[in-house]
């Protein structure tokens, strides 16, 4: 456990130092120098550490997975300690994380955290979390309207461009270049005789901009629905704005899920090439959104009136004055980026939970986990000896039965979407034949090609045998 803890702590320290140098706001936070003895909800740990460690950890995870399946060597196993520490340390060191009933109650609170905050202000919501993350780049406006949501907005100035440039733009761009180099090389058909050139760059641009374009269309249509329909519905349905937000976010999840399947299809059902395309696409999204946020996006209002007005259409009572004329345009571009961020957090949060599924099914895992954390005698553990009323026990049982079913339905759907492409090649072995002779013929990457250009397949310019040594004579 110690290596996992130390790697995670070093990541937190390094991230804190980098963020202080980039955005400022350094301050002393007392830690208490004690153990975590209270179980925190999954969404609380996720929102606290996803920007600090989990996002970076999953980038390392994807690149490490690509390295293992493309050029395996035992030395790569060492880096899994880093991946596990950065992604799972907050949950491993959370007391009673693997308690069966609490785990599925966690799933319920995580789903509610994702979809809440779209009808009224809620401090603990994904909408407030993503706004706080974005405000590090934009800063806040000084104008206030005396709303409760303004209490969560600290007085922060917009970070200077050159401070943000190195840490948030230049370094991610370098990572993108490294990934793009690997993507270009693996799609170059090196060693293939009589190869047909393909449009790998166009393929990357397609899978990157297609979900952004589709989300922009969905949001544009829903904007007019919220503007003209939702205000009238709000008299009989107070959650009409939340329904519009749910539709937009659900469409975003489906769009990105289909985009992932499209990557498989365009890469000829090859997992290695699909994975590097996914990695490069993710990094390209990060670069595009960070550049747009840093350069073009104006400051945030401390209140969340504009966010709520986008979903419920009530722009007339936001109290923003004349800026309300252009605010919907700004909010439109913000919501396009938020749709992508929502899909990322939806899949990432579910992946973190799904990885823990085999652990929670182990008998007495909560006792063993507590023993490892606190070195306690199993008889001293009172996790399951809490006194609950009959009503509380019945409520917890209903929540677990409901979200247990939803959890495994989601697990089955996502597993199917991940595993099905491995067998899709048996039905559509050559996707490029579907568009043969058209403008998009070169968008597909051929699969099962012979890339071995060594031995008898080597070009004539390459020596494959030892040449005969010439005879030298010193006497005529």
Helicity, in percent? 55-70%
Q: How large is the share of residues in beta strands?
A: under 5%
The major beta sheet can be summarized as: none
Q: How many domains make up the coordinates?
A: 1
Radius of gyration: 27 Å
What is the CA–CA distance across the termini? 79 Å
Extended strand count: 0
Structure class: mainly alpha
On the 0-100 scale, what is the average pLDDT?
88
Poorly predicted segments: none
- Please report the number of helical segments: 15
Shape: globular
The run of helices and strands is HHHHHHHHHHHHHHH
What does this structure look like?
Helix content is 61%, strand content 0%. It has 476 residues and is an all-alpha fold. The protein has one domain. Helix 4 packs across helix 15 and helix 9 packs across helix 11. The model has no long low-confidence stretch (mean pLDDT 88). One of its GO terms (cellular component) is plasma membrane.
């Amino acid at each position: 456990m110690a290596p996992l803890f130390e790697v995670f702590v070093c990541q937190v320290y390094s991230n804190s130092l980098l963020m202080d140098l980039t955005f400022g706001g350094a301050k002393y936070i007392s830690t208490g120098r004690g153990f975590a003895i209270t179980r925190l909800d999954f969404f609380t740990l996720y929102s606290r550490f996803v920007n600090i460690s989990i996002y970076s950890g999953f980038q390392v995870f994807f690149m490490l997975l690509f390295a293992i399946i493309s050029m395996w060597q035992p030395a790569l196993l060492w880096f899994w300690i880093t991946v596990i520490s950065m992604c799972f340390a907050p949950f491993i060191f959370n007391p009673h994380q693997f308690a069966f009933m609490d785990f599925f109650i966690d799933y319920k609170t995580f789903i509610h955290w994702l979809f809440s905050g779209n009808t009224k202000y809620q401090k603990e919501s994904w909408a407030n979390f993503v706004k706080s993350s974005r405000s590090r780049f934009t800063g806040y406006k000084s104008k206030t309207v005396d709303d409760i949501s303004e209490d969560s907005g600290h007085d922060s100035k917009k970070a200077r461009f050159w401070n943000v440039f190195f840490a948030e733009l230049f370094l991610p761009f370098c990572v993108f270049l490294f990934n793009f180099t690997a993507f270009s090389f693996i799609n170059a058909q090196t060693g293939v005789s009589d190869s047909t050139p393909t449009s790998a760059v166009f393929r990357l641009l397609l899978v990157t901009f297609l979900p952004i374009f589709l989300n922009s269309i969905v949001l544009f249509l829903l904007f007019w629905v919220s503007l003209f329909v939702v205000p009238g519905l709000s008299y009989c349905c107070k959650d009409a704005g939340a329904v519009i937000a749910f539709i937009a976010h659900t469409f975003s999840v489906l769009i990105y899920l289909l985009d992932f399947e499209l990557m498989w299809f365009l890469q000829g059902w090859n997992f290695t090439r699909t994975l590097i395309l996914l990695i490069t696409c993710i990094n390209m999204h990060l670069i595009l959104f960070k550049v747009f946020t840093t350069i073009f996006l104006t400051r945030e209002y401390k209140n969340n009136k504009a966010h709520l007005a986008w979903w419920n259409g009530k722009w007339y009572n936001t109290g923003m004055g004349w800026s309300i004329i252009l605010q919907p345009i700004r909010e439109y571009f913000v919501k396009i980026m938020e749709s992508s961020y929502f899909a990322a957090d939806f899949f990432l949060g579910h992946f973190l939970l799904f990885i823990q599924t085999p652990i929670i099914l182990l008998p007495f895992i909560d006792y063993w986990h507590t023993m490892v954390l606190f070195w306690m005698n199993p008889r001293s553990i009172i996790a399951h000896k809490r006194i609950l009323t009959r009503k509380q026990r019945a409520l917890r049982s209903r929540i677990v039965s409901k979200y247990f079913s939803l959890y495994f339905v989601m697990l089955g759907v996502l597993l199917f979407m991940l595993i099905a492409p491995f067998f899709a090649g048996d039905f559509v072995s050559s996707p490029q034949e579907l568009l043969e002779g058209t403008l998009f013929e070169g968008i597909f990457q051929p699969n099962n090609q012979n890339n071995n250009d060594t031995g008898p397949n080597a070009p004539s310019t390459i020596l494959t045998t030892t040449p005969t040594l010439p005879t030298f004579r010193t006497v005529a």
